[in-house]
């Protein structure tokens, strides 16, 4: 669930859940951004979808099995840092997001696993050293779209909460998920149609995996890519870049992993 006004979010929580549960639910909120197409002059720093990568001169273009990955986005974290605060514990400068394009018509692509960790790469670059790098011929090059990062505050989806997160009446609700479904059911929490940065992703509960945890390790949501005129992710799908919490704190973006959800 996404709110433009943090104060409105807190009011909704306490009015719907009561003071105790409302404060605890509001404390689970994460700051993030909704990425909106913009003119170059209105873009947030050097944030953009598609276009050229911004890499340091000695950085090689990433590949998997000899197939170059496709550049999907560049984030300027220096421009995002003031809103994120301690949610961005490192200062990586520019972040380049690459993925193994699933639509490339190469026979030698077919044996590759598009959901292996190596199928996506998040490569940081020092802003003062970064240079424009166009995609190799075998990678898809998407049109450059500058974006404005609109500040939002996000509450977790009902399927991202556990029974230990919130107090609830066990005679009235079968779990914390039931409590949130009942009290916030009139708010559309589905953000899977948006491009988003940080915050809570719009992961489907059907996956059984959320950004809150994976194989016992907490993960942080970096980037959510919805379908648009340039790419699609299956049937009404959404693509995510996630990173273990400890790896983000250490600035180790080599541990970023892909997730995709579709109907």
Automatic annotation (TrEMBL):
Superkingdom of source: Bacteria
Cited Pfam families: DUF1963
Matching InterPro entries: DUF1963, YwqG-like_sf
Organism: Marinactinospora rubrisoli
The protein, known as: DUF1963 domain-containing protein
